[in-house]
Amino acid sequence: MPCFTAMRAEIALMSGSAFAVTHHAFSSGAGRTSDGNGSHASTLKSPSYTKSVSWQHYPTRVYIANVGNVQVPFINKSNSQPGRECDQPTFGWTTGSKGQLSLYIAKPFVGEQNIPQTIIVSVFGTKKENVYSSVPISQVLLSGKVTVTQGCELAAGTSLDIDFGEYQAHDFKGRTGQPPQNVQKIQKELTFNCTNISDGVHIYLSLEGTPNAAYPSAISLGNADVGAVIEDGKGNILKPNDSNSLLEMNPGSLYEYVKRKVTTTITAYPVSTTGKLPAAGDYSGVATMHVELD
């Protein structure tokens, strides 16, 4: 009479992003090394499922002696080794001691995600079909951590110096919150080289700098009556130090698996912040751009 082995897989189901697929060989914690002369078969009892976050479990394959790696679930898989129910127990079975498992990141995430310790497979053995102990002969447990290093930097050759040119003081008079007469608005095409930004992640540009005291939507140029305004391509002002003032950039397409060119256009010009005549002189200001991921 053939002998049998049962198997149960507890699968961690997680949310996740199409980012990578990894394959691992595993070893059983039971430490068995050979099948001896005993016979058995394998089955998968009804799988149970647990929920976690960030990962999705993909097909697992477990080694069955004389058969090879078999995808779970399966029912009463024999090892094709002759034997009888009354045979003496054998030791050192290799069934359940190795196999393969795949992980697939199925949802975008930023930073670090932990995989809590999860029972993936429990292997049960018997010499009589459909009669199994509640104690597994081996188990496979999985735990770990995945850290994705992400970043963006300005592409080589991109200049961020903006020269507004020269204006007469009277061009600003009576134009609070507006550009001077005959303004020359400056457009800049920005390109960022980004890595490890998955599809579905939103990429934003924000500004940090000293706002003009009289007109906080403008960047200070060191003169209370004049400021600099930065707009997105739709004419919305990017307010400095405002977490709600964000420019969503074009993420482009992935290339070389993990890279993408992120682009956007900004428009800059001076404005009158008080409507008064500004004093003559040279003025300058500085703002810092931040790239944010969501």
Provide a descriptive summary of the structure in words.
By secondary structure, the protein is mainly β. It folds into 2 domains: 4-147, no CATH class; 151-293, Immunoglobulin-like (Sandwich), CATH 2.60.40. Helix content is 0%, strand content 46%. It is built from no helices and 19 strands. The chain has strands at 4-8, 10-13, 17-27, 41-44, 48-51, 56-64, 68-71, 77-78, 98-107, 111-126, 138-148, 151-154, 186-195, 203-209, 219-223, 226-231, 247-248, 259-272, 287-293. It has a 5-stranded mixed β-sheet, with no helix packed on it. The chain has a 5-stranded antiparallel β-sheet with strand order 12-13-18-16-15, with no helix packed on it. It has a 4-stranded antiparallel β-sheet with strand order 3-9-6-7, with no helix packed on it. A hairpin with a 3-residue loop joins β6 (56-64) and β7 (68-71). 30% of the residues are buried. Residues 1-57 have low confidence and may be disordered. One of its GO terms (cellular component) is pilus. This is Minor fimbrial subunit. Its main location: other.
